[in-house]
Amino acid sequence: MATIEDSPTFFSAATPAAFEVGSLPTTEIPVEPLENDSAAPPKPVRITCPTVAGTYPVVLFFHGFYLRNYFYSDVLNHVASHGYILVAPQLCKLLPPGGQVEVDDAGSVINWASENLKAHLPTSVNANGKYTSLVGHSRGGKTAFAVALGHAATLDPSITFSALIGIDPVAGTNKFMRTDPHILTYKPESFDLDIPVAVVGTGLGPKWNNVMPPCAPTDLNHEEFYKECKATKAHFVAADYGHMDMLDDDLPGFVGFMAGCMCKNGQRKKSEMRSFVGGIVVAFLKYSLWGEKSEIRLIVKDPSVSPATIDPSPELEEASGIFV
C-alpha cells in the first residue's frame, strides 16, 4: 500500500520528474449537488485522484472565467499522478456569478471537501487533512488568492492552507473594471499571506488577439500578483504561450470554441505548456509541503530543463532571505 503522509521519494535533480507524468494511475470522479444529501457538494465538482491506495494531500483547483472544470483534465491528471487529490468545482453555469459570490462559493466547496471528500474517493484512497493547497487559473487564480486572503465569508475559519499557486491570475479587464473583491493594492508585498506562493504567467497573455483585448491585461495579471506577494514566493513565465494554452486540446461545445479563439495563443505545442504548468505545480507543492527544494531550485537556476521557455528569468525568494 502506498501511503503519502510524509515526504515522497526524492528524484534526481538532473531530470525534473515534476515535468513528467507521475507513476500513479489516476481517475476522474464527477460529483453533482443533490437535495437532501448532506454529503453532496454545494457545487458540481470533478475529483481527480490516484487509484492506488494511500493518503494524499488535497488541492482545490478553480477554473478560469466562463470555463469548464473538465477543460483542465490533462493538467489535473498530471498533478494527481504525483500523489495529490484534485478537487475542481464548477463555479459557473451559463453566466459567471459576481466575483464575491464566486469566492464565497469556493469557500463552501472547501468546507464540503474537508468534511465529505472521503465518501466520494476510491476504496482505500484517503485525503490528508494536514495539507490543503489552493490553485487557480485566470479569474480562478484571483479566486484562490481571495480565499487565501480571507475574503470567503463562508469559509470555516479553522481551515488552513499549505500553499497557493496562481496560474496566469487575472483581477479584471482594466484597473477601473476589477472583479470583486478588490484584492490588488498596487503596493509591493502587501498581501497578508504566511504560506508559500507561486505565480505562473504567460508571455502572450497581455497581448491583443487581433481585435480581441488581452485576456491577462497589464496591471491585473501575474506581474502585479507576484509584486504584492511576500517571501516565500516564486515566479515563472512561459514566454511563448498564451492565457488559454494550458487547456486540453479539442475542447467541446461553444464555450470550448470561445476558449480556443478569445486569447492570443502560442504557436508551439500546447502539450508542452501543460507539462510546464503541471510540473511547476508539482515541484512547488513538493517544495511547500515536504521541503523538497531540489527540483524547484533546479528550474530556477537552469530554466532550460523546462518544456516551455521561461523568460524573464524565474525567481524564487525564500522567507529565509535566500534569493535563488
From TrEMBL:
<feature type="active site" description="Charge relay system">
    <location>
        <position position="168"/>
    </location>
</feature>
<dbReference type="GO" id="GO:0047746">
    <property type="term" value="F:chlorophyllase activity"/>
</dbReference>
<feature type="active site" description="Nucleophile">
    <location>
        <position position="138"/>
    </location>
</feature>
<feature type="active site" description="Charge relay system">
    <location>
        <position position="243"/>
    </location>
</feature>
<keyword id="KW-0963">Cytoplasm</keyword>
<keyword id="KW-0378">Hydrolase</keyword>
<dbReference type="InterPro" id="IPR029058">
    <property type="entry name" value="AB_hydrolase_fold"/>
</dbReference>
<protein>
    <recommendedName>
        <fullName>chlorophyllase</fullName>
        <ecNumber>3.1.1.14</ecNumber>
    </recommendedName>
</protein>
<dbReference type="InterPro" id="IPR017395">
    <property type="entry name" value="Chlorophyllase-like"/>
</dbReference>
<dbReference type="GO" id="GO:0050832">
    <property type="term" value="P:defense response to fungus"/>
</dbReference>
<dbReference type="GO" id="GO:0015996">
    <property type="term" value="P:chlorophyll catabolic process"/>
</dbReference>
<comment type="similarity">
    <text>Belongs to the AB hydrolase superfamily. Lipase family.</text>
</comment>
<keyword id="KW-0881">Chlorophyll catabolism</keyword>
<dbReference type="Pfam" id="PF07224">
    <property type="entry name" value="Chlorophyllase"/>
</dbReference>
<dbReference type="GO" id="GO:0042742">
    <property type="term" value="P:defense response to bacterium"/>
</dbReference>
<comment type="pathway">
    <text>Porphyrin-containing compound metabolism; chlorophyll degradation.</text>
</comment>
<dbReference type="GO" id="GO:0005829">
    <property type="term" value="C:cytosol"/>
</dbReference>
<dbReference type="InterPro" id="IPR048264">
    <property type="entry name" value="Chlorophyllase"/>
</dbReference>
